Amino acid sequence: MLIDSHAHIYDEELLPYGGADAVINSMAADGLEYIVCVGCDVPTSRTCVELADKNLGIYATVGVHPYDADTVTAGNLDVLRKLAAHGKVVAIGEIGLDFHRPNSDKPTQIAAMERQYDLARDLKLPTVYHIRDGFGEFYEFAKTRDFPEGAVLHCFSGSAEIAEYYVKKGFYISFSGTVTYKNAVNLKRAAQAVPLDRLIVETDSPYLTPDPLRGKINFPKNVALVAQCLAEIKNIPVSEMERITCENTKRVFGIANGR
Ligand SMILES: [Zn+2]
Asked: Residue 52 and residue 50: Cα distance in Å, rounded?
């Protein structure tokens, strides 16, 4: 069994294939124990909570992606706080920094991340970070902060050294389909550097389809291809990698505690 620790199953790209319902209905057949459905803004965060409320196998995160950093107003933080009161909300995310395709300026993104980090600390929830071309700025943020509830660097895109630094700070490192790409030499090296008890896997469905399906729409079941790639990198059986990443995901998100 596997857990997809990060998917956007409400995304309209999945609608021609039956949307979230089709994904959820095929979870058992696909070998998926849980899917963590990740919010990107207030409306999708609400959708994630609704999906988690109705479906045993779905957990939710609520948060605002750096693309929409300018929507992190006091009013919206209040909405996120209320949504996070649901028992199946396991983290605040995805939050973070994206200077690759910035929709909003650097100070706005940093402030949005800081305010949502504060919310997570207040609610005693872990945080899920999307960091793209922003590891320098993220370091400035993280070095003065603690992450006692744990944190996830989702769709990790940094170096082995960066991964090791955040493991020391208590983070879990989540790999997506990008680690399966042939030219992803540095990413494979980073995966090699992460201790087994801090590795988790995700699809970021419907995006970032792993090899050999690259170019097609990505479904949560493809998380098996990410686990397979990590098993090869770590030189352990796939079944062992599946067991370990499930355990790690449950630990960081408190799923084993019946949250
Ligand atoms: Zn995502």
From this structure: 5
